Amino acid sequence: MTAMEVVRKFSISYQTLNHYTNFGLLNAIRKTGSGNKRFYNLSEVEKNLNRIGDLKGKGYPLKIIAKMLNNIQ
After folding, report:
1. What's the pLDDT score for residue 39?
2. DSSP code, position 38
3. Strands (DSSP E) along 13-63, which ranges?
4. 3-state secondary structure at position 9
5. What is the pLDDT of residues 57-69, one digit of tens each?
6. Where are the beta strands (DSSP E) in the chain?
7. How far is CA 70 from the centre of its chain?
8. What is the pTM of this model?
9. Dihedral (CA of 51, 56, 62, 63) sign
């Protein structure tokens, strides 16, 4: 799924998606042949956004959340 599809489906801003991707919270695949677009795996995005929301709700900073998600995967 494209970045724009993620933004629309999960009602997050494009800036949030970029931030999470750059921070390592979401993994994107770059396809240079398609205009250098980023593509995401739907189930992974859904799972990670739920985890991010839960952990942010408990007060964890994104830096710690990134470490936690990387240890799980």
Report:
1. 93
2. E
3. 29-31, 37-39
4. helix
5. 999 999 999 999 8
6. 29-31, 37-39
7. 12
8. 0.83
9. negative
The pLDDT > 70 percentage for the chain reads 90
Check if the beta carbon of residue 48 is closer than 8 Å to that of residue 65. Answer: no
Torsion of CA 18, 70, 57, 12, to 10 degrees: 20
Beta-carbon contacts of 9 under 8 Å, excluding residues fewer than 6 positions away, are 1
Find where tokens 């710690």 sit. 64
Amino acid symbol at 33: G
Stretch 37-51: mean pLDDT, rounded? Answer: 94
Could you tell me which of 51, 12, 72 has the C-alpha nearest to residue 62? 51
Domains of the chain: 3-72 (1.10.1660.10)
